[in-house]
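Team,

Forwarding the record for the chain on the shared tracking sheet. I've put the sequence and predicted structure together so nobody has to dig through attachments.
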Amino acid sequence: MRSLVLLLAVLALGGCMNVSDMAEGTRYHMSDAGLLDHSDSRRVNNFRIQPDSFIYIAQGSFAPPGGAYPRPNVVAEEAFKGFVEYFPMVRRARAPEGLDQAMGEARDAGAHYLLYTRFAKADDRIGNSDEWLDQEAVDRLGIDGGVIQIMLIETSTQYLIDTARIKSRGGLLTFHDNKPEDLIGPPLEQYARSLLGVGDQ
């Protein structure tokens, strides 16, 4: 109810705002109310890195609990898509790998930082008729969710620069045909921006 009141207040103030600000405010409140996809990112440090930093991205082979089976390297793939727009020197591992192997490859490539990720939790709920026919479980109806964990490590010292936890959930208006891995792209791009100090954290 509080979110609906805030949404109406944003719309009422539309005459005092430009269109892009009003649209962003509306999107934020609809996400907060659970109508659109939403994510919550928690960083341990507010560390920033240079835009010319060379970042090697890898994902651990950890299989997330929660009844979903996302593509094995999907977090690294989505992180690469989010980071390449902001960091011109980015490389990604082709397959999941252990931390020691990823660190070795990052150093061999000459990377300044290793961005090591994993899908810590993935809950794939029934979101279309095919999934309903496969499962036919009323308690599995609903919106998808997941948790991503990130470590940013300096390759020269192996010092842990930053860690982050990103919790994502779908929305009532967007859950059809969605999977947990469909929710992680925007918050990973937001994390890339936050490392540069660009936009909201």
